[in-house]
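Appendix B, record 7
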Amino acid sequence: MFHAATPSGQNEQSKQNEHTKPRDAFFDNAKYLAILLVAIGHSWEPLKGDSRVLQGLYLVVYSFHMPAFIIISGYFSRSFDLGPARLKRLLTGVLVPYIVFEIAYSLFSRYGNDDPHQRITLLDPLYLTWFLCALFLWRLTTPIWKLVRHPLPIALGLAMLASCTPDMTDDFDLQRLAQFLPYFVLGLVLKPEHFQWVRRREVRVLSVPLFAGAAVFGWWAVPRMNASWVYHHDSAQEFGAPWWAGPVMTLLMFACSLLLTAGFYSWVPSRRTWFTALGAGTLYGYLLHGFLVKGAGYAGLFHHAWLHRPYGVLLVTGLAATAVTLLCTPPVRRVFRFAIEPDMEWAFRRDAAELARDRGQFEQHVVREKVSA
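Structure tokens (predicted):
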């Protein structure tokens, strides 16, 4: 989740603040732990069919891991405007990786899964690339959300409307973009004190029965609820439910996701830990771990019966956590920086202010040289 996974919102912090103030360890820790849950959730997907317990835990994790990531992405998008510098970062840090990985995942599916019918198109995000597509469009609308008086109710209204609109186009995964929009807008309106509030000891204590209750509810809901609701990519009618179920479920899931996200944040360390530095590389872990999970699926590795037993699930969980951790490390980031954080200054015209600043620095340098001579 999301720069992305940030899945992209996560690296915006470093790009904006690298020369002004140190990074906040809490947010880097939260991003790393959230991406850990994303990878674990993806690794559970091919195994969950045989276990009601695992299906219940999967529902719980999917109820909050992307909202937790998206809220942080929104929070670090608060200063976004349509200025040249931020538009450049949006293009190089979000749009270009989306194009690169959308093509890469399409080719991987076509040849790795022997699927000649797999199209290569930028209109239909494949697998986890939807988040980059959504983040690009969400950020472009940020000035609007900063302008209107009640942004969160408006975003919730749009999500509720989308949830009962089966004719909404599948282009750019707009259904999921609209249904996850409130979390991004919530991040835009949050202030530092809100994150401090959820990190209080009382919230941490209350989160224990909250997650225990959520696990029990997830187990209960497995045979009674369509798990696809947590993906937010379809309308109520597409689930065979009445239209009004969409808005109702949107509100209920928003409330549940916020409670679980608050509980998750309450346990995120505020101090620097061994994984704090990895928080700056979560977009790498997000975009790259999908090749490992999909590759294992294409190779039929998840078909082994013993992997569907508790010790097999634990092994897969540990491998997923280890893999995504390694993918966030500096050596991996150096190798894949060309695709995820490309240096594309050659592609942009320099604006007048930048040229004037460089000219002034050059003139000062010439004057110093003359004086020293």
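Remarks on this record: Confidence is low (pLDDT under 50) at residues 1-20. The first helix runs from residue 9 to 17.
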